Amino acid sequence: MIKTGDTLPEVARGRGDFEDWIAAGLGSASTRVVDVARGERLPEPSACVGVVVTGSSAMVSDREEWSEAAALWLATAVEAGTAVLGICYGHQLLARALGGRVGRNPRGREIGSVDVTFRAVGDPLLGFLPVRARLQASHVESVLELPPGVRSLAWSALDPHHAFRVGERAWGVQFHPEFDADVSRAYVRARRAALCAEGLDPDALGVACGDAPHGRALLARFARLVRAGGDVTPASSEPGGAA
């Protein structure tokens, strides 16, 4: 797991951090966390069978040295056929690594529980999702242009590129599959001043936060895909069933 940042301090004290929630969703005890934002060194891509890139409060468009180095590493991992899942910042970093463009979302901040529409029938990772799913999000930057030859597999009212796939085994998702409603509410509370300044209603956004079981199911599915080395059959326990 490539750790690119930390969650809110008040959340981390009681709930843990991005890597804890992602690992719980993956259901894997063999995950190694590499904190690239604090200078930890990544292994050779060939040493990894699967990679998850976490979210962050940093901005991909700032092109910090550690972030740019991680982008180069990701490009090599994708070329080597390693299974990759980029989440939020990781989604944007993967897009940048492969030739896409990332910047401030001209449609504004997206935060809380959002409706995401999927066009992913037959996709090994996303194909089990319903056409519309409620998921958690918190971001001000977005993928403004996808990498060449890549199409969007999901969108929301504020972001046309909520998910994409590159090749057979690399995906980016702008939403946070590891967040639950309580974590989303904490982000809304923490961003209250900014939300008010942007003309948004933090109280309404907080009330609208709800459970999003499809996110946890997606992480479990990615873990099975990595272990299987290819396609996986949708499990009956996955919310939404087969597309």
Number of strands: 11
CATH topology: Rossmann fold
Total domain modules: 1
Number of helices: 8
Average pLDDT reading = 93
Q: Judging from the principal axes of the Cα atoms, what is the shape?
A: globular
CATH class: Alpha Beta
**CATH homology superfamily:** Class I glutamine amidotransferase (GATase) domain
- Beta content comes to 15-25%
Which class do the helix and strand fractions yield?
Answer: alpha/beta
Q: How would you portray this structure in words?
A:
- The protein has one domain (2-228): Class I glutamine amidotransferase (GATase) domain (Rossmann fold).
- The chain contains eight helices and eleven strands.
- The strands form three sheets. Strands 3-4-11-10-9-6-7 form a seven-stranded mixed β-sheet, with helices on both faces.
- 33% of the residues lie in helices and 21% in strands.
- The protein has 243 residues and is of the alpha/beta class.
- Helix 5 runs antiparallel to helix 7 (202-208).
- The longest helix is centred in the C-terminal third of the chain and has 16 residues, at 213-228.
- It starts with a strand and ends in a 15-residue tail after the last helix.
Quick overview:
The chain has helices at residues 9-15, 18-26, 65-79, 89-97, 181-190, 192-197, 202-208, 213-228; strands at 2-3, 34-35, 50-53, 83-87, 101-104, 110-118, 132-139, 141-145, 152-155, 163-166, 170-173.
Protein traits:
two-stranded parallel ribbon, 21% strand, 8 helices, seven-stranded mixed sheet, 243 residues
Topology:
Elements: E1 2-3, H1 9-15, H2 18-26, E2 34-35, E3 50-53, H3 65-79, E4 83-87, H4 89-97, E5 101-104, E6 110-118, E7 132-139, E8 141-145, E9 152-155, E10 163-166, E11 170-173, H5 181-190, H6 192-197, H7 202-208, H8 213-228
Parallel strand pairs: 1-2, 3-4, 4-11
Antiparallel strand pairs: 5-8, 6-7, 6-9, 9-10, 10-11
